[in-house]
Amino acid sequence: MDNWSDYYLALSVYEAGSHAAAGRVLGLSQPTVSRRMRALETHLGGALFERRGDVLTPTALGRSVLDHARNMQDEAAAIERAARSGNERIEGRVTVAASDGVGADWLPGALTPLLQAHPDLSVELKIGFEPANLAGGDADIALRWGQPGPQHSLLARRAAEVGSGMYASECYLERHGAPQTLDDVADHVAVGWAAPIAFQWPRTPIGDELKPRRDVMVATHPSAHLEGLRNGLGLGVTSHRLARVSPGLVRILPDFEVLLDLWLVAHGAVRRSRAQATVLDHIAEALRADREHFRHGELSRYSKASSRPC
């Protein structure tokens, strides 16, 4: 088997979340997608995904295949950009909806190269945790946590896997000590979340939460949550990427990790607008380029610290 499009198909299945959803994005029937995936897995000698509830999770083989497929996709996108360069005028306003975290601290930097390259293009950022109604015209493009939402007339791809862990400040740990096991967490206090989507505390095999005895503070905004942790109020679960830029935070119980999917969603009509399609493709590429930032907390390629001042 030497058809690289089958590897791209595997990536599309992962990003869309199912064979049927990938088929809708690619214009293929669900039986065709399933048949080609079975043939690819037979050729490679193993399953690429396993289903956990409603979520497709890559196997070890699947993760390797997806990494190579992303690299091929990146190269194909680079060829396409080179062919288009200088030949298109992109103009108009595109509205992008995203949560307080990724929309406020990551999107502006990620969009900067695009907006500098197209001076007639503008982007309106709608920041908040309530999901925008794309079909109702609230936004053209959205970044959503956990699930893409209703799929009617929407294009959706699982764009990033965001890793998180348990963190506390150095001063908190000096006063109270660090928990050595998950059971020890109950002897501490927490800086908690009160947002619709949040990283979860560890759970027992039967699903009970293993969390501190009480919340000393509850935050609805990631900045407030991080400040509570940095000021030594308690333990908290936050993303590796946000913890990295918060001086004084220490990861505890490193074997505990929670992963949360970040979805890139757009109305099906997005391809009819050159401006919207350009912004959608740019954000998708930026998320691919920064996958280690989201997964492990590596420095973002769009961070001010990784580039020269304006």
Care to describe what's here?
With 310 residues, this protein is an alpha/beta fold. It has 3 domains: 77 residues, Arc Repressor Mutant, subunit A (Orthogonal Bundle), CATH 1.10.10.10; 118 residues, 3-Layer(aba) Sandwich (D-Maltodextrin-Binding Protein, domain 2), CATH 3.40.190.10; 97 residues, 3-Layer(aba) Sandwich (D-Maltodextrin-Binding Protein, domain 2), CATH 3.40.190.10. 39% of the residues lie in helices and 23% in strands. The protein is built from 11 helices and 11 strands. Strands 3, 4, 5, 6, 9, 10 and 11 form a 7-stranded mixed sheet that branches. It has a two-stranded antiparallel sheet with strand order 1-2. A two-stranded parallel ribbon has the order 7-8. Strand 1 and strand 2 form a beta hairpin. Helix 1 crosses helix 3 and helix 2 packs across helix 3. It is globular and about 60 Å long. The termini are far apart. The mean pLDDT is 86.
